[in-house]
TrEMBL record:
<feature type="transmembrane region" description="Helical">
    <location>
        <begin position="6"/>
        <end position="28"/>
    </location>
</feature>
<keyword id="KW-0812">Transmembrane</keyword>
<protein>
    <submittedName>
        <fullName>Membrane protein</fullName>
    </submittedName>
</protein>
<keyword id="KW-1133">Transmembrane helix</keyword>
<dbReference type="InterPro" id="IPR009732">
    <property type="entry name" value="DUF1304"/>
</dbReference>
<feature type="transmembrane region" description="Helical">
    <location>
        <begin position="107"/>
        <end position="126"/>
    </location>
</feature>
<feature type="transmembrane region" description="Helical">
    <location>
        <begin position="49"/>
        <end position="72"/>
    </location>
</feature>
<dbReference type="Pfam" id="PF06993">
    <property type="entry name" value="DUF1304"/>
</dbReference>
<keyword id="KW-0472">Membrane</keyword>
<feature type="transmembrane region" description="Helical">
    <location>
        <begin position="78"/>
        <end position="100"/>
    </location>
</feature>
Length: 128
């Protein structure tokens, strides 16, 4: 079950790298505007915030990825702690998103379901 959890956490990390790309490099592109439901003017006004948020998503992905590597190379305690911190923060961010704006349920589900399943599987894998 630990391997399943690490795989799910890895997928979640990749999703967050993609979100980093959207928020930090493609923020005002037509396709990104459609994904986030914004006008070009709104995106331009929010560009600095999006850049910061994009890097936050990248850092969560990095922490999770480093945790996966540590776990895979035998440092299970350190690796699992990093995976749980990174993926757990992804879940928490998704919860904040849906709590703050109910219309963002779909985005929160896309952002938070896979890391939630990964966290659960890692915990089960560590306790079995």
């Amino acid at each position: 079950m630990l391997i399943v959890g690490l795989a799910l956490a890895g997928i979640a990390a990749l999703v967050h790298v993609y979100i980093f790309y959207l928020e930090s490099f493609a923020w005002t592109d037509r396709k990104t505007l459609a994904v986030f439901g914004m006008t070009a003017e709104q995106a331009e006004a929010m560009r600095p915030l999006a850049l910061n948020q994009g890097f936050y998503n990248l850092f969560l992905a990095i922490v999770t990825g480093v945790g996966i590597v540590f776990t895979a190379t035998g440092s299970t305690a350190v690796g699992a702690a990093l995976v749980l911190a990174g993926a757990g923060s992804m879940v928490a961010a998704a919860a904040v998103l849906v709590i703050s704006d109910r219309t963002k349920r779909g985005a929160a589900l896309k952002q938070g379901l896979v890391p939630l399943l990964g966290v659960a599987a890692v915990i089960v894998g560590l306790t079995v």
